[in-house]
Write a structure and sequence with these properties.
The complex is a heterodimer of chains A (122) and B (154). With 122 residues, chain A is α/β, with parallel strands linked by helices. Chain A has a single domain (20-114), classed as Nucleotidyltransferase, domain 5, CATH 3.30.420. Chain A is 31% helix and 23% strand. Chain A has three helices and eight strands. Chain A has helices spanning 2-15, 68-78, 94-106; strands at 29-30, 34-35, 41-45, 51-54, 61-63, 84-88, 111-115, 117-118. In chain A, strands 5-4-3-6-7 form a five-stranded mixed beta sheet, covered by helices on one side. In chain A, helix 2 (68-78) runs parallel beside helix 3 (94-106). Chain B has a domain at 58-150: 2-Layer Sandwich (Nucleotidyltransferase, domain 5), CATH 3.30.420. Chain B is 34% helix and 16% strand. Chain B has a five-stranded mixed beta sheet, covered by helices on one side. The longest helix of chain B has 19 residues, at 107-125. The mean pLDDT of chain B is 79. The chains are: A alpha/beta (122), B alpha/beta (154). At the A-B interface, helix 1, strand 1, strand 2, strand 6 and helix 3 of A face helix 1, strand 1 and helix 3 of B.
């Protein structure tokens, strides 16, 4: 009995990801999904247009949409190869996404991951 | 007088072991978040490569405010996009693909197009063991200012 229980514990301990962000967003769906590297910086855009960011280690903090550039620049100074994960709601207007992507580009971010959830096969 | 040796019970009490184990299970089950770290990868071009994209020779995908697609000035449903792009990319693998989104369109529309393009890349160039496509199309996601600059071409 307790053997099984410990097996389950180990399973859940291994699969538990210490997430840097727990904002609930409705991710867009896609068939193509690539695993983002661990400890990537993350930028969250909610349906309401609010922006949150985290450099990878600590919990994400709300920031203004215009501050993405300085945030990303700070991240890139420490590690030039760092990837940035964009976690945006599927109903976010493109102009906000454009603002974020544009600022990331200006900050010199090369690798961006656009988070998605698994799509049911069409 | 003969002293009787006291028998000490040296076993660890295991009767509560399963209880503790289940408590831990419940804790990890509640805190477990299953991999929310997968998505479509997108490479930002280095600044100097920007000029390489010549709008006239590209496939131009426009996403309207209603998330409808207009590909090279013709409306097109999402499922026809792959069949339309495939022959063009097979002729010229470096053909630029410009994705222009209306500011009022949603993120979902963009992701659908990106997903289709990635699937198409898989069809044309194949995938490695990890399921990653081997080559990417020359994709451009112009910003609003760039669109204004290219205005006469688009």
């Amino acid at each position: 009995m307790s053997d099984i229980a410990f097996l389950l514990i180990v399973f859940f301990m291994v699969t538990t990801v210490v997430t840097t962000d727990r904002t609930n967003v409705n991710l867009p769906e896609s068939l193509e999904r690539k695993e983002a590297p661990k400890n990537s910086a993350i930028i969250v855009v909610t349906k309401e247009g609010l922006c949150k960011a985290s450099a990878g280690e600590e919990m994400s903090k709300p920031i203004a949409m215009e501050d993405v550039l300085s945030f990303a620049a700070n991240v890139m100074i420490k590690d030039l190869t760092k990837a940035v994960v964009l976690k945006a709601d599927r109903d976010v207007k493109y102009k906000l996404v454009d603002q974020v992507l544009n600022q990331l580009k200006e900050a010199g971010v090369r690798q961006v991951y656009l988070l998605s959830s698994k799509e049911a096969v069409r | 007088m003969k002293l009787e040796k006291k028998e000490r019970d040296t076993e660890i009490p295991t009767s509560s072991m399963a209880d503790i184990a289940f408590l831990l299970i419940v804790f990890f089950m509640v805190t477990a978040v299953f991999s929310a770290t997968k998505g479509i990868d997108f490479k930002n071009p280095p600044p100097q490569e920007q000029a390489d994209i010549i709008p006239e020779e590209s496939i131009h995908i426009m996403i309207t405010a209603e998330n409808q697609m207009i590909v090279d000035q013709k409306p097109m449903p999402l499922r026809e996009l792959r069949d339309y792009m495939k022959p063009k990319l097979e002729i010229n693998q470096a053909k630029p693909v410009i994705v222009q989104c209306d500011p009022e369109s949603t993120y979902d529309g963009l992701m659908n197009v990106f997903d289709e393009i990635r699937q198409l890349e898989g069809e044309i160039w194949g995938r490695d063991e990890d399921g990653n496509v081997k080559n990417h199309v020359n994709l451009a996601l112009p910003t609003q200012e760039e669109i204004a600059q290219w205005g006469q071409f688009l």
